[in-house]
Amino acid sequence: MFISLVAVIVLGAIAWMGGATPGLQYLFGIVLPMIAVVVFLAGFIWRIMDWAKSPVPFSIPTTGGQQRSLDWIKPARLDSPYTKTGTVGRMLLEVLLFRSLFRNTKAELRNGPRLVYWSSKWLWLFALLFHYCFLVVFIRHFRFFLDPVPVAIGMMETVDGIMQIGVPRLFMSGVILFGALLFLLMRRLCDQKLRYISLPNDYFPLLLLIGLVGSGLCLRYIGKADIATIKEMTMGIATLSPHIPALPISPLFYVHLGFLSTLLIVFPFSKLMHMGGIFLSPTRNLPNNTRAVHHTNPWNPPKTYRTYAEYENDFRDLMDEAGLPLEITPEQAAAKE
Amino acid sequence: MYNAKYIWPGIVIFIVLFSMPFWMNTGQEQYTRPQLALPAGEKECVEPAEWMRANHMQLLNTWRDMALREEQRVYVSSSGKQWEVSLQNTCMKCHSNYVEFCDKCHVSNSVSPYCWDCHVLPKGNQ
User: Fold this and answer.
1) Predicted confidence band at A1 (pLDDT cuts at 50, 70, 90)?
2) Range of B54's domain?
3) Residue of B7, B110, B116 to mutate for A, most A C-beta atoms under 10 A
4) Residues 6 or more apart from A146 whose CB is under 8 A from it?
5) Cα–Cα distance measured from residue A272 to residue B97, given in angstroms and rounded to the nearest whole number
6) Which residues of B are less than 8 Å from A40 in CB distance?
7) Residues of chain B with confidence (pLDDT) below 70
8) What is the ipTM, given to two decimal places?
9) Residue B90 covered by a domain
């Protein structure tokens, strides 16, 4: 936890200094983000290719229901899918609604002592809020990268800021995103069992995202930045003709950009790759039809068979001599020739 | 590679989505910062221009509260100068050209302030 916290603070401080030093602005504002985008795209594809090249030796879908069996036994079509349609349905529910987090069964010893099993929905709820708000915030940011801004983004902003709180209007997604991230961090810190198994590479992405979202909220609501100048800079990057605008930009913006660049660079090599990995999980994307369809281990060498007929051909005379029963007697074999 | 018929479309979709800002801007002319119609006679705004660029909306909000809720009609700026707290008489005395001033940056950055839900939209210098 503390290593990650220090790392994030140091990164933020470096980005702040980079943004505050005129000579380093080009490095931190343009070179670093462009490298980050390339690393993100290349690293992402490399990881996917690496997974795609790995054979799946066994059919290992995780199941949460009755496998397809006799006709009068009702199968769980989504929790133990045995057709392609069922598997696709299960994947969609998993990717879009985080179905396996919804289950999240917990065993707890309550006073009594009494063992209680229950399904904890908090992780599911906040994970869902976090991911969807992040998506909304991500899409909203395209107003800085496209000109003219698509109508869809304007509509999204209208809905997001429908509460009309303050100026600039409060976007609900940003606040919920920040709250959900804090919950996900507190969950790791407050639950003893979870804290025990949490590693720096669990805390680092969380704290980095808190830094990213926090700096973003600051730029909008507290230490406001001039977005016209920022758009001049981001459009320079998007049209591949980058330049640092003549008008000054707050160093806080460079912190925001620094966190984003770090996130993009770290993304393909961290647990955040679950974004692509979920689609390539054999425990999710395989149908549970092992009793009906043979799963071939792709790394097995091609099989060489020796049939009984070949065996008998080789040893017919000896077998006949020993009095063993034969399918084709030596006389029949001779007659065939 | 296994399952190539699923992997390749996936990778293509990923690249197309995430490189959107780069390919959607091709063929367009170079983006330039919107050029605003600055007031002709006046050189000094309520606060320094650099501060106003980022914080004008906050100032407008503060002025609304001062004028309408606290009945305070005098604003002392950071330079010590006194200004009448009024949208019509102070702000729009100079910045009267809505289309060429406010709208320029707002449209370019997809900002849709709800000022004009209540206020009369300024119709330029006529």
Assistant:
1) confident
2) 44-111
3) B110
4) A153, A238, B21, B24, B25
5) 48
6) 18
7) 123-126
8) 0.89
9) yes
